[in-house]
Amino acid sequence: MSKKTIYILIGSVVVIIALLVVLSKTGVIGNKDKGKEIEITTVDVSTIIETVSATGKIQPEIQVKISSMVSGEVIALPVKEGQVVKKGDLLVKINPDLYTSGLNRTVANLSGTKAGLSQADASFKEAKSSYDRNKTLFEKGIISRSDWDKAIASFAVAKATKQSAYYNVQSASASVNEARDNLGRTIIYAPADGTISMLNVELGERVLGTQQMAGTEIMRVANLNNMEVEVDVNENDIVKIKVGDEAKVEVDAYLKKQFKGIVTSISNSASSSLTADQVTNFKVKVRILKESYEDLLEGRPATYSPFRPGMTATVDIITKTKNNVLSVPISSVVVKSDTTAVVIGKMPDSKTEGKETMPKSDKKFECVFVKVGEKAKIRIIKTGIQDDTNIEVLTGLKKGDVVITGPYTTVSKDLNSGDKVTLKTDKEKK
């Protein structure tokens, strides 16, 4: 074979290879475009339970903070944390010496003011007699005008002195009552039946207390038979909740166990403190129903509670339930506007004939992509309530429609109406 023939063959092979590459890239030969790979589901009816989730702390429904109204040293503390007490039981005693001496001092002062009142009363009677006598003498012209004026002044002074002494007695009597009350406040009794859920002082410590403000919190007496979870709910969700709503409660201390609850209280005002991300929250209280944890009480004393104040719990408040409603996965719903060329109809002009476009509008629409043959078509829908995975469809779809659910990036960004699509194989999903 001559060199010329060899060169011709090599050149022919190169040209053929180049032509094949070009034809392959342009799709004339080889694998054609199969379209965007998608995942689908069929529209069907289901039950949707809308919930609001929040995390909080367990606390007793009834809890009394025991604070001192007087200051002093704790000389008796016959209770300990966790102890069950009855109404009227002694909880704490503060050294009464200072208040005993204060009471004695005010009693002595009261006696002195009473003696002063007796003396002022005697002086008043004497001044009254002198006044009556001088009045008669003045009317008969026996004494001068100046003597009569002196008699009037003396009587007025005696009357005012008696009145002042009377009020001094009243003031001293009030001081005695106050001192007696302060002495009584050195002994604190249980205001109700309950359990000492918190004890903040030790025997021998000093506590502070005033009548104008709360003093040292000594302890807390709580009824542990009725426990609740206090949670913070976002302002966007608080409008969905109402008193009486059922709830599911999960306590960190009891894994894989769920308790029943009911909303008992919703705060009318937002919490005074904002979260780190400046979200406004409202306090909601959920009672844990005893019927849901009776198995934890078996063989325990009547005062036993499986929950302790401060335990962490998560509540799912059921705000609405709908049965047999059309639903689709949340991942299939996207929000579109005119900037993303949402398809809602056909424009009759020559430029867009046969193409689907959306009128210019700033309004946003909830949409899904449905698979029609090998094409993706967009549908505007109206949605209702949702749970963690599905959302209710009110209009725009019917049972049996094939909805594109993923991949997320494809549905939310890449996919357009009219695009060719192909199903993702199980191997590709993995």
SSE blueprint:
Blueprint: H1 3-25, E1 36-42, E2 44-67, E3 72-76, E4 84-85, E5 90-94, H2 97-139, H3 145-184, E6 187-189, E7 194-199, E8 206-207, E9 217-234, H4 235-238, E10 246-251, E11 258-270, E12 281-288, E13 312-329, E14 334-336, E15 345-346, E16 356-357, E17 365-372, E18 375-386, E19 390-395, E20 402-406, H5 408-414, E21 421-423, H6 426-429
Parallel strand pairs: 1-21
Antiparallel strand pairs: 1-20, 2-9, 2-13, 3-5, 3-8, 4-7, 5-6, 7-9, 9-12, 10-11, 10-13, 11-12, 13-19, 14-17, 15-16, 17-18, 18-19
Helix pairs in contact: 2-3
What does this structure look like?
The protein has helices spanning 3-25, 97-139, 145-184, 235-238, 408-414, 426-429, and strands spanning 36-42, 44-67, 72-76, 84-85, 90-94, 187-189, 194-199, 206-207, 217-234, 246-251, 258-270, 281-288, 312-329, 334-336, 345-346, 356-357, 365-372, 375-386, 390-395, 402-406, 421-423. With 430 residues, it is an alpha+beta fold. Helix 2 (97-139) runs antiparallel to helix 3.
